[in-house]
TrEMBL record:
<feature type="domain" description="Aminotransferase class I/classII large">
    <location>
        <begin position="25"/>
        <end position="376"/>
    </location>
</feature>
<protein>
    <submittedName>
        <fullName>Aminotransferase class I/II-fold pyridoxal phosphate-dependent enzyme</fullName>
    </submittedName>
</protein>
<comment type="similarity">
    <text>Belongs to the class-I pyridoxal-phosphate-dependent aminotransferase family.</text>
</comment>
<dbReference type="InterPro" id="IPR015424">
    <property type="entry name" value="PyrdxlP-dep_Trfase"/>
</dbReference>
<dbReference type="GO" id="GO:0005737">
    <property type="term" value="C:cytoplasm"/>
</dbReference>
<keyword id="KW-0808">Transferase</keyword>
<dbReference type="InterPro" id="IPR015422">
    <property type="entry name" value="PyrdxlP-dep_Trfase_small"/>
</dbReference>
<dbReference type="InterPro" id="IPR004839">
    <property type="entry name" value="Aminotransferase_I/II_large"/>
</dbReference>
<dbReference type="GO" id="GO:0016212">
    <property type="term" value="F:kynurenine-oxoglutarate transaminase activity"/>
</dbReference>
<dbReference type="GO" id="GO:0030170">
    <property type="term" value="F:pyridoxal phosphate binding"/>
</dbReference>
<keyword id="KW-0032">Aminotransferase</keyword>
<keyword id="KW-0663">Pyridoxal phosphate</keyword>
<dbReference type="InterPro" id="IPR015421">
    <property type="entry name" value="PyrdxlP-dep_Trfase_major"/>
</dbReference>
<dbReference type="Pfam" id="PF00155">
    <property type="entry name" value="Aminotran_1_2"/>
</dbReference>
<dbReference type="InterPro" id="IPR051326">
    <property type="entry name" value="Kynurenine-oxoglutarate_AT"/>
</dbReference>
């Protein structure tokens, strides 16, 4: 049988985690927390399951959770939305990204994405019959050249996908970026998919700028977020998409045939968590900034060049003073010989640059971060 995605194999995350397990290495590669979800959230999950809330929920999500999401958006971004018409609960942010891409992409359409890019974007575009147009961001600042973006737009361009705070660079888009983006979208009547799964993890007292902050941007956008990132429960695969009424209607047409609905007890538990311990969201940036600082401080004696982490729970390291190996070979060396698993940045590019940069995940216990840094400081 001819493959629909012939160039894809095992993901780098599966490969590096498997290698880490094989060599008993500290796994700072795959982006999942080493610590557990909040106690209240787990208790409510058990409660609702035991009480028999184990059947299908409405395809768009249970009303209490939709309302809590809309209240969070109002509190964080000042935007009033009608939850029933604009909020769709999904089985993880990756499902939401897939569905949004399928909803807008027609055969022959081009979707602009920025490398290094999360690895689910391009396969979803290709499966919809479109083509991903890659614009490479360069180390060490990974800033967007909006003139280059403008030159990439043509009559086939359908949409742009942005991701801020950005995985894997840990950079954030600034106000001037959104000004340039909005002008481009309006000039060419383009749609926008905004991947904001790390929206509540922005550092150094610099608030995350959301597409939801701007009514004109939101009018043509799908905004996607992740409960897994926010509440340390990536294995639950719970996310959501917020979009204007007309775009939401198209989104839901496809969503109903992908997962139909998402895990009912988890939706009820998440609604309670947002209602009763909403401060968890507000404390998340400080929580992860402390972990970032633990890792950065522990690496000060190393030969790595530490790149700024403005958000997410990732940190980039330049190893050019340590080794001339390419980044994949260097990461394999780290696992096998040093005992630390990282991710090579080249896998997030269509055309990999010659940068010698790797990504570490610091969503780990402090002792894990210090132990990993001690190993890396031996190089």
């Amino acid at each position: 049988m001819e493959s629909k995605l012939p160039h894809l194999g095992t993901s780098i995350f599966t490969y590096m985690t498997g290698l880490a397990n094989q060599h008993n290495a500290l796994n700072l590669s795959q982006g999942f927390p080493e610590f557990d979800a909040p106690v209240l959230l787990k208790q409510r999950l058990a409660h609702y399951s035991e009480q028999g809330f184990n059947q299908y929920s409405p395809s768009s999500g249970i009303a209490p959770l939709q309302k809590q999401i809309s209240a969070l958006i109002k509190r964080k971004y000042g935007l009033d939305i009608e939850a029933a018409d604009t909020v769709t609960v999904t089985s993880g942010a990756t499902e939401a990204l897939f569905v949004a891409i399928q909803a807008i992409t027609r055969p022959g359409d081009e979707i602009i994405i920025f490398d290094p890019a999360y690895d689910s974007y391009e396969p979803a575009i290709e499966l919809a019959g479109g083509r991903a147009v890659h614009i490479a961001l360069q180390a060490p600042d990974y800033s967007v050249n909006w003139q280059q973006v403008a030159e990439a737009v043509n009559d086939k361009t359908r949409a742009i996908i942005i991701n801020s705070p950005h995985n894997p660079s840990a950079k954030t888009l600034k106000a001037n970026d959104f000004k340039a983006l909005k002008a481009l979208l309006i000039r060419h009547d383009l749609l926008l998919i905004s991947d904001e799964v790390y929206e509540h993890i922005a550092f150094d007292d610099t608030p995350h700028i959301s597409v939801l902050n701007d009514a004109e941007l939101f009018a043509r956008a799908f905004v996607i977020s992740s409960f897994g990132k926010t509440f340390h429960c990536t294995g639950w695969k719970m996310g959501y998409c917020i979009a204007p009424k007309l775009l939401t209607a198209e989104f839901r047409k496809i969503h109903q045939y992908v997962t139909f609905s998402s895990f009912t007890p988890a939706q009820l538990a998440l609604a309670d968590m947002l209602a009763e311990q909403g401060e968890h969201v507000d404390e998340l940036s400080g929580f992860y900034q402390q972990k970032r600082d633990v890792l950065v401080d522990a690496l000060q004696g190393s030969r790595f060049t530490i790149l700024p982490s403005e958000g997410t729970y990732f940190l980039l390291l330049d190893y050019s003073e340590i080794s001339q190996l390419d980044d994949m070979a260097f990461c394999e060396y780290l696992v096998k010989e040093v005992g630390v698993a990282a991710i090579p940045l080249s896998v997030f590019y269509q055309k990999a640059p010659n940068d010698k940069v790797i990504r570490l995940c610091f969503a780990k216990k402090d002792e894990t971060l210090v132990e990993a840094a001690d190993k890396l400081c031996t190089l």
